[in-house]
Write a structure and sequence with these properties.
heterotrimer, A alpha/beta, B mainly alpha, C mainly alpha, A: alpha/beta, Rossmann fold, 2 domains, B: 66% helix
Amino acid sequence: MTEQAPVNALHIENVTMQFGGVVSVNNLTLDVPEHSIIALIGPNGAGKTTAFNCITGVYQPTNGLIEFMGKPMVRNYPKGKDLKNYLGEEKDKYRSLPVLSPTPDEITKLGIARTFQNIRLWKSMTVFENVLTAKHMRADQNVFSATFRGNLSEEKRMREETMELLNEQGLQEYKDELATSLPYGLQRRLEIARALATDPKLLLLDEPAAGMNPQETLQLAEFVRTIRDKYKLTVFLIEHHMDLVMNISDYIYVIDFGSEIAQGLPKDIQTNQKVIEAYLGVADEQ
Amino acid sequence: MTEKKNYRPTILLIAGLLIFVIILENIRSVFPWLPQIFDPMSPLFTVLKKAAVYSLVAVSMNLLNGFTGLFSLGQAGFMLLGAYTYAILTVPSELKDQVYYLFGGCAFQFSIVDFFKGIFGAGGAGGAFSMVLGCIIALILAGTVAGFFAFLIGFPVLRLKSDYLVIATLGFAEILRAFFQWQRLGPITNGANMIKGFPTFSSFNITDGSGRTILQLSTFIPFLVTTICIAIIVLLINSSYGRAFKSIRDDEIASEAMGIRLFSHKMLSFVISSFFAGVGGGLFAMYVANAQAKAFTSTMTYELLLIVVIGGIGSVSGSVIATFLYVACSEWWLRFLDSEQYIGGFKVPLLRNGFRMVVFSVVIMIIVLFFSKGIMGNREINIAALLDRKKTGKDKAKK
Amino acid sequence: MEYVISVLLSGISVGGQYALIAIGYTLVYGILRLINFAHGDVFMVAGLLGIYLTAVLPIPVSLPLVIVFTVLLGFTIERAAYRPLREAPRMSVMISAIGVSYLLQNTATYVTGGQPMTYPTIPFLSDTVNVAGTQTKWVVIITPILVLILVTILSMLINGTKIGMAMRAVSKDFETSRLMGIKINLVISVTFIIGSALAAVGSNLFFTNYPAITPMAGAMPGLKAFVAAVFGGIGSIPGAVLGAFLIGICETIIKGLPSSWDVSVFSDAFTFALLIVILVFKPQGLFGEAAADKV
């Protein structure tokens, strides 16, 4: 192989997600180049989280293709009842190709980790256990070796790596506290730490700054950059905080009512008329 | 850097407990003047045996319901499978015709104990060894059969949402019960009749040549088996897999997003829980000295569930404590409520047959309603920590 | 042929009796998302009340009284055992329901002394009638008619009255209904009252056919009625009724198969097999609505 063109960590093509008669994501196409920080923004209900759920396997998109690291990961086309009611485009583009519909855990195993908009930490577990449990997927063990302590070095390695992650995030002093007893900002951090524990290549952050004050938001921006560099990650995030988005994104996609309305560099998006209208609304034409 | 648990005090305590059980059940043969309660036939030992058996099943249920958050009510069905497997495998060949007389003998002539007797000899130490080995293997197979059925049943039911899982597992237990009562299976299951004649707990008592008991072990055996099984469950719960189970209980969407395969982990928990329920079923057959399908009703599962709730959903030690309290109350301490009692010539009202269970259910309702965390909540008794605290307490006192 | 008719007739009547219990399950599940395990035992207690009350009072007085007391029991159970757990996890409420079931069974054992009790002969219902050449009891004919009448009244209540509207709203969205000012507790009480009243009527019909009542007599019909409710799509009244008729008929057919096949032992098991099949292939039941989880 000769010198490669920059690889897209994530490539989304014609993805449409339709629930009954509602098109939540409409023919979305976007690229997330490796090692970049890309943002997906849009007003409430624009379909951002639905797009994330399609990428992470929570939903199977009605139509479209999602590639991860250059390989097709999710692919579908409308069939049966969905086809009859289909309101999107490109309904036949993927028909000749096999359907790919991995489960969320398979996608995580490929190297995509996520956080949740409404924090989903394991509430009965301590901070330490939350991160340690996320290491379960990649542990070299089976239920017998784990139960009968056949592979103590593996457990030790997991615990050490967990501690490392916690130290790095400044969470070490809380390690034995219940995850849900942490302040909000730290819970968000812990969710990121937990996602990192799965050794991802691509990190999806669903509104990481929600509920944070400006100070914390600023720290978060710094933090996202740091982990991107340290773990050679690609970051794809949904966010409402324009400060954060404009501060850290390399490139921004804007969607409204499921469809893309703009894309570009932060400074272009800031002045884009369509985006401003989507966020502030337009005067009713009467 | 990470907490290193000290297991030694726990192991020592449990070993001590087991030795204590042996001493307890033999003490009256050394000191015959001790009160009646120390007689091996007294309610004390009935309670201890039954509680030992039930605590294993309760803990296995807790693994599934408490630690994995899968609300299943199929426990009685898996116990039934275990009990029958154990019974069918261990009834001695020469007794089979007698037990299965209604069906003209048994279709399954193999007896695992006889098989080993063929190898190690039938008399003396060889016979004893054959029986112990046969029983151990039969118990393991009892668990395996239950686990295997759980595996088959798991495919359809583990994909169901919580309430439907409850009713589907309950239904499976009922289906199993019907199957084992089917006359057509009579030559194997003895139809609706009981299978008996297999080795029970008292078969483990050591006797001398004349048949006189030298060493009682009939209470020790269930304690030993249960202890080993619960120890394995505890090891599992504290392993990486146990953490994965707990994560599924807390938030399965998050678990899946962290790469934990929901279905296979649920299946694992279901199969392991059923395995131990099957072993518990085998022990139960040993305890009641028979195996009969109609004993394994949904009421039995409800009872076990209530034990788990009383002990605290998600606490192994809670389940064990609750089992002993529950069995002691229902079999012994509250017995007096079932017969007429007089306090100085005054007849206590209401007391007659069945009153015990009414009082008992009221107590359970009070616990369910007002102490929903049960005895232990989701904590465990940590013996090492208890000792530590005592030590530090003493150190402080010295200063 | 006559045999077939008699099997079908008794199937329909058993189905009708299950239907009356199943409505109680489906209403409660629709609103509280609770499998009310105690409902079958309420049904059993109604049977016992029938025995004790008819022993001391004339039938025209005692039968309405049975309904009144059963309603009172259902209402009290909800008040005492479910309402305190309104904010608790759903599983706690189910455990409480199992506890209530245990309590009712044990109390019944205590009161009856554990002996099977004989249900009184109710004139007219127990009288025999000749249908298409088969002798059968009037109750067999009355049951399906009565069920249809009661279901029609219930549908009118649910679709046409204010409280019925409130019930529908609560079963659609508990929290929002509460925010909209619907008196949740009133709605739930009404649900339990309706369910218990129907169970009382059902028990009267059921035990006229099966003369002995044991403390466990409610458990199995209860579970079957629940299966019927799931089969029809939990929360849907027509679904529950249809499911109950289907289960009742299948069960009597299995019981009526030649005794040399030895399959009557599967009459209960069949219901559960049916349940598992339906749960696997159409989890929302015949008339249920699929609900989506939000991530």
